[in-house]
Every structure is written in structure tokens, then in C-alpha cells.
């Protein structure tokens, strides 16, 4: 497999018309890919949390740091390309439990509502998936494929030319780091 042409870090977003590969590594963060099967264009976002601090002019975080901002970045890219969200194949990845010794290997069985108090949803990975899913779906993003939850990290490579996404999973075990 060829290496990626663009590597994204947390909070970054990349949308392109070029037939390239975009990669990222996720822990409890979540990535979304959007691919237009006819135009063969698309992008990837890597968000840290579903929502961030209220905009007050002092927030210096990249817009893509939060699912809400990443959704806006995608919408801007779709508009610029003369397309709309319903034309894209949307896939969601990540939200891995990075601290299984603290939270166990349980599946996220509850919905962390966006307005839930912080104490109601302490599982950051679960919150990233459930709240992120709600944010994107409320804006018309129909998530067609998911590889979310579980334990450990994921490395993704998104091929914009084909829409394929390769996922390599890592796993935490005591006294080790993700693979």
C-alpha cells in the first residue's frame, strides 16, 4: 500500500479534487470521510470532541477540532464544489476506549445527549461517537458505514480516487502503547 499524500492531525480537515490518500490516527477522537462517487472528490475530518467552548473571540482552536465545526467545514467544501451532502458516501470511524482499565471493555449503551451535563457522560469516546453522530445526522449527513467504539486506536487511510478506507486497529494492553 502506498503511503498517504496528506496526514491529518487532531482538528484538521482536508477536502480535495485530487486523487490522493489522506490518513490519520485516532484514539477516542472520531474521523468522518465524505466521498462523491461520481465526481470522485472528498474529504476527511479528525475531531477531538463533539462541541467546544462557546465562540467568544478568544477560542483559538481550529474549527475542525469539534464535530460541529467539522460539519460546517464539510458543508462549505460541498458548496464550493457545487454539490450537496446527500450526494456523498459518509463513513464514521474512531471513538475507541483508550483507557479500558478505567472504563472496562463495555459497549457504549447510552446516548450522551448534547445538552447532558458532563457528569452524565464521562466516557469521552462514547460521547464523541453518539453526539458527533447526532450533530452530523441533524445536518443531513447519512452515515452509511461505521467502525466505531471498541478498545484501542485506529489508523485510517482514505483513498479519494476510489472512496475506499483502510483501517488498522491497535489495542491497549497493560503497560503497552497503541500499535
Please describe what this structure looks like.
This protein is of the alpha+beta class and 179 residues long. The protein has one domain: 60s Ribosomal Protein L30, Chain: A (2-Layer Sandwich), CATH 3.30.1330.200. Helices cover 18% and strands 27% of the residues. The strands form two sheets. It has a five-stranded mixed β-sheet, with helices on one face. It has a four-stranded mixed β-sheet with strand order 1-3-8-9, with no helix packed on it. The longest helix has 15 residues, at 124-138. The chain is globular, with a radius of gyration of 16 Å. The model is unreliable at 173-179 (pLDDT under 50).
* Average residue pLDDT: 84
**N-end to C-end Cα span:** 18 Å
Main β-sheet description: 5 strands, mixed
Strand tally is 9
The helix count comes to: 3
> How many separate domains make up the residues?
1
Nutshell version of this structure?
With 179 residues, this protein is α+β, with helices and mostly antiparallel strands.
Write the layout of secondary structure elements.
Elements: E1 6-7, E2 13-16, E3 21-26, E4 30-36, E5 41-47, H1 67-80, E6 89-94, H2 100-103, H3 124-138, E7 143-148, E8 154-159, E9 165-169
Name its key features:
60s Ribosomal Protein L30, Chain: A, 3 helices, disordered C terminus, 5-stranded mixed β-sheet, alpha+beta, 179 residues, 9 strands, single chain
